[in-house]
Design brief:
This protein has 138 residues and is α/β, with parallel strands linked by helices. Helix content is 46%, strand content 12%.
């Protein structure tokens, strides 16, 4: 135990960097606000539980390729269009973004509005495409 304190005293910069990294990791994990699901798990939720696939990408990105039966509400409009989601309040909602980064912020918005069955799709549409899953293109 004495050696730990000696190490910390002699290498305080490393200990400080470790604690800062740990703090950032905890902060990032807490911001996610919703459990993540893989693209396959998202498909299962959609097929078995009637989950809404909520695509929060821009309208242009959505038109270039989307998940079948998904709904597009761009992230910038989400606060104003929460009433569009009212009929899905008791159903699972899977939030899909471009890379999986913005979905956590969208999940926070929905959770604050009382939605409890909110999920984030890991990797977003980039992961969906990388796995060769089907897209609807217009």
């Amino acid at each position: 135990m004495d050696r730990i304190f000696e190490f910390a005293a002699n290498h305080w910069e490393m200990v400080l960097a470790f604690l800062a990294t740990l703090g950032m990791l905890i902060f990032t994990e807490r911001r996610k606000a919703a459990p993540s699901v893989s693209p396959q798990q998202a498909t299962v939720l959609g097929n078995s539980e009637g989950a809404l696939m909520l695509d929060i990408r821009s309208a242009a990105d959505y038109k270039s390729g989307k998940i079948l039966n998904s709904t597009n509400i761009p992230f910038a409009e989400l606060n104003k269009r929460l009433s569009d989601l009212e009929k899905y309040r008791d159903k699972p909602i899977v939030i899909v973004c471009k890379t999986g980064q913005t979905a956590g912020s969208a999940a926070n918005i929905l959770r604050k509005d009382g939605y409890t069955k909110v999920h984030r799709m890991t990797g977003g549409m980039l992961e969906w495409s990388n796995q060769g899953l089907p897209l609807v293109r217009k």
